[in-house]
Amino acid sequence: MTYRIRVLDTATRELAKLDKPSGRRVVERIHWLAANLDSIKPEALTGDLAGLYKLRAGDYRIVYEILHDEQTIVIHIIGHR
User: Fold this and answer.
1) How is the beta sheet containing 53-57 ordered, strand by strand?
2) pLDDT (tens digit, 9 = 90+) per residue, 27-46?
3) Residues 8-20 pLDDT 10s
4) Local structure of residue 24 (DSSP, 8 states)
5) End-to-end CA separation in angstroms for the chain
6) Residue 44 and residue 22: Cα distance in Å, rounded?
7) How far apart are CA 23 and CA 30, in angstroms?
8) Is the pTM higher than 0.85?
9) Is the CB of residue 59 less than 8 Å from the CB of residue 79?
10) Residue 1 has pLDDT above 80, yes or no
11) What is the pLDDT of residue 57?
């Protein structure tokens, strides 16, 4: 089952700052996550980011939230690792 993707404005701005190959890799990884979420074990974050999960895309980290009821993945942060 494929989840919908919602990208917050802060993550959109961060994505726009990336060079094209890195940005493309991050977008492809987000789409992969949406298509394969049921078959992976998400890596949970702790501390201030508890309740969020992380995913690596090359040298970048994607921080996201899973809304199972809405079948939506919310992208919060895209940043260099």
Assistant:
1) 4-7, 72-80, 60-67, 53-57, 43-44
2) 999 999 999 999 999 999 99
3) 999 999 999 999 9
4) H
5) 29
6) 23
7) 11
8) yes
9) no
10) no
11) 96
Tokens of 23: 């940005």
Fold (topology level) of 4-80: YaeB-like fold (3.30.2310)
Name, in order, each residue with C-beta under 8 angstroms of 65's C-beta and a sequence gap of 6 or more: 51, 52, 53, 73, 74, 76
Q: What is the CA radius of gyration of the chain?
A: 12
DSSP 25-66: HHHHHHHHHHHHGGGS--EE--GGGTT-EEEEETTEEEEEEE
Q: Where are the domains of the chain?
A: 4-80
CB-CB neighbours of 62 under 10 Å: 24
Please, are residues 73 and 6 in contact by the beta-carbon 8 Å criterion?
yes
